[in-house]
Design brief:
Largest sheet: 3 strands, antiparallel
Radius of gyration: 15 Å
Number of strands: 3
Distance between the termini: 46 Å
Number of helices: 3
Helix content: 55-70%
């Protein structure tokens, strides 16, 4: 049975959702590399924004890989 994640997630929920360590998520959040917002002292993440961010990251990584391959083959 699939886990259902809330619309607004905590650090722990996003870590489970993305399957990454807390330290990695804190670093992404502090560097502004993942969509999030601080509410008082707590980070909050909108699931829809995380899903869009994942889609955008897949596109960027794919483009970088393609560019690297083209450079390696002289294209």
């Amino acid at each position: 049975m699939a886990t259902i994640f809330p619309e607004v997630m905590t650090i722990d929920e996003v870590c489970k959702y993305l399957r990454i360590p807390r330290s990695s998520l804190y670093k992404l959040a502090q560097e502004g590399k993942i969509p999030c917002q601080k509410v008082g002292r707590h980070w909050r993440f909108r699931k829809a924004a995380i899903d869009r961010w994942l889609d955008d990251e897949i596109m960027v990584v794919g483009q970088e890989t393609q560019t690297s391959d083209e450079e390696a083959h002289g294209n």
